[in-house]
Design goal:
The complex is a heterodimer of chains A (about 110) and B (about 120). Chain A contains no helices and eleven strands. Chain A has strands spanning about 5, 10-15, 20-25, 30-35, 45-50, 55, 60-65, 70-75, 85-90, 100, 105-110. Helix content of chain B is about 0%, strand content about 55%. Chain B contains no helices and eleven strands. In chain B, strand 7 (about 65-70) and strand 8 form a beta hairpin. Chain B is globular and about 40 Å long. Chain B starts with a strand and ends with a strand. The chains are: A mainly beta (about 110), B mainly beta (about 120). Chains A and B meet through strand 5, strand 9 and strand 10 of A and strand 5, strand 9 and strand 10 of B.
Chain lengths: ~110, ~120
């Protein structure tokens, strides 16, 4: 089986940097994804890490450490529009191809 | 229409009703998925179709019945549901479930309320 842990809620101010952590337990591992979901909206893909290290895409970066079964999403220069829920998801041995197991989500609130 | 569309966006039904949810993807993808999203719970994968063939049924009760007539369309037929089935039902698609990772594109979901 697979399980993922991430904080349920994070609050930060506009312009700040926030890190959302995700730890996972899987019977095998192919990669870690991050998705963003605004209230009332569809989840949208942010990033995918299959190898250790940091992947940067604009203001968002994602990090993976396979040896620690740990990853994080880093959001820089926070904007009000970044207020949303962020989900990590693993593609593990039980989930070949594109099947994903999602974490419970972290609700990020950005304040002025 | 672009991306992944779902209809209806909202549905209220009684426990004895039969209804269907529809999903259509306009991305040329070959894999489609149904997820259930309940309050304060992770997204739960329900069914996976790859090239119109059902490849996964994640221990979903038989009152949920999927149908995939072609790679662009996916249905979820609902019959004698329970109040605890009230949730947001999300459809997603990706290029191919077997050839390495491809991001999933989600529809806006159907908010289902079972009375």
């Amino acid at each position: 089986g697979q399980s993922l842990e991430q904080p349920s809620e994070v609050t930060a101010v506009e312009g700040a940097i926030v890190q959302i952590n995700c730890t996972y337990q899987t019977s095998g591992f192919y990669g870690l994804s991050w998705y963003q979901q605004h209230d009332g909206g569809a989840p949208t893909f942010l990033s995918y890490n299959a190898l250790d290290g940091l992947e940067e895409t604009g203001r968002f970066s994602s990090f993976l450490s396979r040896s620690d079964s740990y990853g994080y999403l880093l959001l820089q220069e926070l904007q009000m529009k970044d207020s949303a829920s962020y989900f990590c998801a693993v593609r593990g041995q039980d989930n070949a191809g594109n099947m994903l197991t999602f974490g419970g989500g972290t609700r990020l609130m950005v304040k002025p | 229409e672009t991306g992944v569309t779902q209809t209806p966006r909202h549905l209220v039904m009684g426990m004895t009703n039969k209804k269907s949810l529809k999903c259509e993807q306009h991305l040329g993808h070959n894999a489609m998925y149904w997820y259930k999203q309940s309050a304060k719970k992770p997204l739960e994968l329900m069914f996976v179709y790859n090239f119109k063939e059902q490849t996964e049924n994640n221990s979903v009760p038989s009152r949920f019945s999927p149908e995939c007539p072609n790679s662009s369309h996916l249905f979820l037929h609902l019959h004698t549901l329970q109040p605890e089935d009230s949730a947001l039902y999300l459809c997603a698609s990706s290029q191919d479930r077997s050839s390495g990772y491809n991001e999933q594109f989600f529809g806006p979901g159907t908010r289902l309320t079972v009375l």
